[in-house]
Amino acid sequence: MTMTVWQSVITIAVVAIGTMLTRFLPFLLFPESKRPPRIIDYLGRVLPLAMTGLLVVYSLKDVSPLSGSHGVPEAIAMAAIIALHLWRRNMLLSIAGGTVLYMLLVQLVFV
């Protein structure tokens, strides 16, 4: 199914407005000069940890210790992520290093 030119323009405009609204609304609701509500501070503290836990569970949901490589590449990559993060305290380095190591392991070692 194809859209007409006007349908495409309207779709792009609605997506752009929605994106701008989600980017600008927090700054309008919580200006820097005012302290945010306690619930916002609380969510700012707990949501990053909850998101990280969710990603770990989602990443490991299909790992079967009884078949294939028995989860060894995943365990090695997780250990590397933890070690990198404890060593450098840099989230980007930890995630990138663990991802690169995992890809190398599954593509070259555990074929």
User: How much β-strand is present in the residues?
Assistant: under 5%
Approximate helicity band: over 70%
How many domains make up the 3D coordinates?
3
Number of strands: 0
User: Main β-sheet, in a few words?
Assistant: none
Provide the gyration radius in Å.
Answer: 21 Å
Query: Counting H and I runs of at least 4 residues, what is the number of helices?
Result: 4
Class from helix and strand fractions = mainly alpha
The secondary-structure element order is: HHHH
What is the rounded distance between the termini? 41 Å
Q: Unreliable stretches, pLDDT < 50, 5 or more residues?
A: none
**3D shape:** flat
Mean pLDDT: 94
Task: Considering the chains and any ligands shown, give keywords for the structure.
4 helices; single chain; 3 domains; 111 residues; 76% helix; mainly alpha
Structure description:
The protein is mainly alpha-helical and 111 residues long. It has three domains: 1-34; 35-62, no CATH class; 65-110. The chain contains four helices and no strands. The protein has helices spanning 5-29, 38-60, 72-88, 91-109. Helix 3 (72-88) packs antiparallel against helix 4 (91-109). The longest helix has 25 residues, at 5-29. The chain is flat. The two termini are 41 Å apart. The model has no long low-confidence stretch (mean pLDDT 94). This is Branched-chain amino acid permease. Keywords: Membrane, Transmembrane, Transmembrane helix. The chain crosses the membrane at residues 6-30, 42-60, 66-84, 91-110. It holds the Pfam family AzlD.
Short description:
With 111 residues, the chain is mainly alpha-helical. It has four helices and no strands.
